[in-house]
Write a structure and sequence with these properties.
Nucleotidyltransferase, domain 5; alpha/beta; 11 helices; single chain; about 350 residues; binds 5'-O-[(R)-(carboxyoxy)(hydroxy)phosphoryl]adenosine; 2 domains; binds zinc ion; globular; about 20% strand; five-stranded mixed beta sheet; about 40% helix
Length: about 350
């Protein structure tokens, strides 16, 4: 059983082939960072145009490089949402066209479920139920995962996502887009204690987040300070610490409130080393186990889509030929949509 995965939800074209016995056979990514860098953020129209040019050639390359024949592909999985409408439609259209031509089933995948289950690409033994912290450019969510396809939203950001906050502060610090990992590298040179930023919403008993206040606080601080390297590094350090502390406090609360002892941390921001270390420390202290995917699979990729596609294919959950995309597709709606 072999699944072709197509990921075009946002600004990177990801193509992968996953085999149920051999695992991940090939995983290719065409990054659009250099397209959007000059605008300091994603331009949806340009993202869609790039997907249009890259998706089919990348699939051809994946087949050629891996040596997989078309006839060995059992089904095609594509990201149906959440994401940018124009970008989603490219992956969906290519996926449906190939499904028709190759006479194989087509499977719509929820992008956030892809992130959520991505640690299983490395670590096969994550038992349900578990807590998941999903931190990406578009989302910041705490999820309770009961079984595949059954998820409950415990809390989420009421405004900016963590990735968005990282990218905006990185831009103000003069760093390139997307700024999360660059800001984190700069933070390594920061002096602990020089600045003190708020840890938002940590005293509210719920599991929601808010990062826009911290973002404004940090932006005001940047405006008032000199722009020398050390000051920028010190601000980056304190911003990263404030974000990570907030996420860790809410994860600890989610474990406590649910009584669960397993936590998955996934999405682009889960590549952040400070976050990984601090969540691990908290989880160990609370006799809990934490699961990550390897850093190169934290950000958007076709592998997670092919993997979830394989799980759905095993359950015989395919789609009809009419194209389904849903830019705001919620994880909690999944069990009703995937039949
Ligand atoms: O999951 P992802 O690739 O895209 C979405 O689904 O949105 O996440 C991208 C986000 C960007 O905001 C990027 O700056 C952030 O993940 N990111 C990081 C790191 N690596 C990527 N943020 C903080 N630290 C990192 N090491
Ligand atoms: Zn993503």
């Amino acid at each position: 059983m072999r699944i072709l995965g197509i990921e075009t939800s946002c600004d990177d074209t990801g193509i992968a082939i996953y085999d149920n016995r051999l695992g991940l056979i090939i995983n290719l990514l065409h990054s659009q960072d250099n397209i959007h860098d000059q605008y300091g953020g994603i331009v949806p129209e340009l993202a869609a145009r790039s997907h249009m040019n890259k998706t089919v050639p990348l699939i051809k390359t994946a087949l050629k490089k891996s040596g997989c024949s078309i006839s060995s592909i059992s089904a095609i999985a594509y990201t149906a949402g959440p994401g940018l409408m124009g970008s989603l439609l490219i992956g969906a259209s290519v996926g449906h066209a190939l499904s028709f031509a190759w006479k194989v089933p087509i499977i719509p995948i929820n992008h956030m479920e892809g992130h959520l289950l991505s640690p299983m690409l490395d670590e096969k033994k994550i038992k349900f139920p578990f807590i998941a912290l999903l931190v990406s450019g578009g989302h910041t969510q705490l999820i309770q995962a009961f079984k595949i396809g059954y998820y409950k939203l415990l809390g989420e950001s009421l405004d900016d996502s963590v990735g968005e906050a990282f990218d905006k502060i990185a831009k103000l610090l003069g760093l390139k887009y997307p700024g999360g990992s660059v800001l984190s590298n700069l933070a390594q040179y920061g002096t602990p204690g020089r600045f003190k930023f708020p840890r938002p919403m940590v005293y509210s008993s719920d599991l929601n987040f808010s990062f826009s206040g911290l973002k404004t606080y940090t932006a005001n601080c940047i405006n008032k300070q000199e722009k020398d390297f050390q000051t920028r590094a010190d601000i980056a350090y304190e911003f990263e610490s404030a974000v990570v502390d907030t996420l860790v406090i809410k994860c600890k609360r989610a474990l406590k409130q649910t009584g669960l002892r397993r936590i998955v941390v996934a999405g682009g921001v889960s590549a952040n080393n400070t976050l990984r270390k601090k969540i691990k420390k908290m989880a160990t202290y609370h006799q809990s186990k934490v699961f990550y995917v390897k850093p190169e699979l934290c950000t958007d990729n076709g592998a997670m889509i092919a993997y979830v596609g394989m799980l759905r294919f095993k359950e015989r959950k395919h789609s009809e030929l009419n194209i389904f995309v849903s830019p705001n597709w919620l994880l909690s709606e999944l069990k009703n949509k995937i039949k």
